[in-house]
Specification:
Blueprint (H helix, E strand, L loop, with lengths): L7 H18 L5 H36 L1
Keywords: Cell membrane, Membrane, Protein transport, Translocation, Transmembrane, Transmembrane helix, Transport
Family: Belongs to the SecE/SEC61-gamma family.
Subcellular location: Cell membrane; Membrane
């Protein structure tokens, strides 16, 4: 039958080379951007939590009134 060639070493080197080149393309945000985005996410999460809590109280009060 045909001879098989072991290309594992070449594939691993190629993968590592590609990985390094992709990491070189990463643009990390500066501290100010990270701070702004963190504040935006935290405030959105708190606001959504408050809205859900208020709706829960309204529904709970409505159900207790009906039943």
């Amino acid at each position: 039958m045909g001879d098989t060639v072991n290309n594992e070493g070449v594939q691993k080197k190629s993968f590592v080379k590609g990985l390094k080149s992709e990491f070189a393309k990463i643009v990390w945000p500066d501290k100010e951007t990270v701070t702004k985005q963190t504040i935006a996410v935290m405030s959105s999460a708190i606001a959504l939590g408050l809205i859900i809590a208020i709706l829960d109280l309204i529904i709970k009060f409505g159900l207790s009134f009906i039943l």
